[in-house]
Amino acid sequence: MGFFGDYRATRRDERELGEGVWRRAHDRFKRGLDRYHQILESVRDPELRAAAVPVANELAELLPRVRGVCMDAHVRAPSQTQDIPHSPSGYLSDVHRQLSRAGNAMAQTAEALTMARFAASGVARAAAPDGPSGADDARAPERPESPSAGVDSIRRRGAVVEEYVAAAEHLMAAHDPSRA
Predict the structure, then answer these.
(1) What domain range includes position 171?
(2) Could you tell me where the Basic and acidic residues compositional bias lies (predicted)?
(3) Is the pLDDT confidence value at 12 over 90?
(4) Mean pLDDT value of segment 37-66
(5) Which of 91, 92, 123, 166 matches a 20 to 30 Å C-alpha distance to 148?
(6) Is position 35 within any domain?
(7) Distances from the Cα of 2 to the Cαs of 37, 62, 87, 90, in angstroms?
(8) Strand, coil or helix: 52
């Protein structure tokens, strides 16, 4: 993107998200998403990759929704510090909590992908013959789980991320001043 592109993006983020809690919540989510994609690039197992790519696409579709919630929250209660702004009934604290949970769940999804990647590489190593034919089977290492167990964990964690984002959106919609 280059220096000027990065500069413009930073200025746009400051304008739309501020420099406080809403920007941090957005950036935490984005870092988790970036990490998931970085790990996905290193996945070599075709089964795991085929299952992880649709999850990556679903998670990427959540980023504009998270940005929208953060932008709306910043418009309603601008934040330039790490303090969550006051709101009637404390709903902005609840919104921030859901966004934080979404960011944490995103990081856990990336972690689950890492674990599945290691399990898949262990399966590949265990399937390859190590020694000469007729080696002592008593010394053969146990074969690790297939990547499908990790795939289920990735899908579950991805669904949790989506639930937290939806909860934040719901809270913002329920307290929309234009609906009153």
Answers:
(1) 11-126+143-179
(2) 136-145
(3) no
(4) 96
(5) 166
(6) yes
(7) 21, 26, 39, 41
(8) helix
- Above pLDDT 90, what percent of the chain? 62
What region, left, alpha or beta, does residue 134 occupy, with left being phi > 0 and alpha being psi -120 to 50 degrees? left
DSSP 60-112: HHHHHHHHHHHHHHHHHS--SSSSPPP-GGGHHHHHHHHHHHHHHHHHHHHHH
Could you give the CA distance from residue 75 to residue 82 in angstroms, rounded to a whole number?
A: 16
Assigned token pair, 24? 């941090």
Range with the lowest mean pLDDT among 6-15, 30-39, 55-64, 129-138? 129-138
* Residue 107 placed within a domain: yes
Question: What are the C-alpha distances in Å from 156 to residues 38, 112, 162?
Answer: 20, 10, 10
Residue 18 in domain = yes
For 109, other C-beta atoms within 10 Å of its C-beta total 28
pLDDT at position 65 is 98
Q: What angle do CA 25, 40, 68 make, to 5 degrees?
A: 25
On whether residue 2 sits in a domain, the answer given is: no
